[in-house]
Design a protein that fits this description.
Order of helices and strands: HHH
Strand content: under 5%
Main location: membrane
Number of strands: 0
Largest sheet: none
Helix content: 55-70%
Structural class: mainly alpha
Distance between the termini: 66 Å
GO biological process, one term: protein transport by the Tat complex
Protein name: Sec-independent protein translocase protein TatA
Number of helices: 3
Family: Belongs to the TatA/E family.
Membrane topology: Single-pass membrane protein
Length: 114
C-alpha cells in the first residue's frame, strides 16, 4: 500500500477547500477535533468500566477456629411490578398525532391573540 505524499495531500486539501469553502474549514476542523476528543474519552471510559467489572483477586482468609455453618434462611422471590400496558405502534402514532394537533391548535390561538 502506498503512502500519501505531498502531491496527494495538496490534492486532498484542494478538494476540502472546494467542498467546504475557505471560511468554513476552521469550523469543520474544530468540529472534527471535538468529535475525536469525545470519542477518545468515551472509549477510555468503556475500558475503565471493563476493568472495574472484572473481579479483583480476593485475598483468602484462613480461619484459625472452625465455625459451624449457619442454616440459610429462604430468600423470598422479588416482587415484579406490573408491566405497563403494551401500546401498539399504530396507537402510539395516533396519540402523537392527537398531541401534535392540540399543540398546533394552541399555537394558532396564541398567534391570533398576539
Amino acid at each position: 500500500m502506498s503512502q500519501l505524499g505531498v502531491p496527494e495531500l495538496l490534492i486532498i486539501a484542494g478538494v476540502l477547500v472546494l467542498l467546504f469553502g475557505a471560511k468554513k474549514l476552521p469550523d469543520v476542523a474544530r468540529g472534527v477535533g471535538r468529535s475525536l476528543r469525545i470519542f477518545k474519552s468515551e472509549t477510555a471510559k468503556l475500558r475503565d468500566d471493563d476493568d472495574d467489572a472484572q473481579p479483583a483477586a480476593q485475598p483468602t482468609v484462613q480461619a484459625t477456629q472452625t465455625t459451624t455453618p449457619q442454616p440459610q434462611q429462604p430468600v423470598a422471590p422479588q416482587q415484579i411490578p406490573p408491566a405497563a400496558p403494551v401500546i401498539s405502534a399504530e396507537e402510539q402514532a395516533r396519540q402523537l398525532e392527537e398531541q401534535a394537533a392540540r399543540l398546533r391548535a394552541g399555537a394558532g390561538q396564541a398567534n391570533k391573540q398576539a
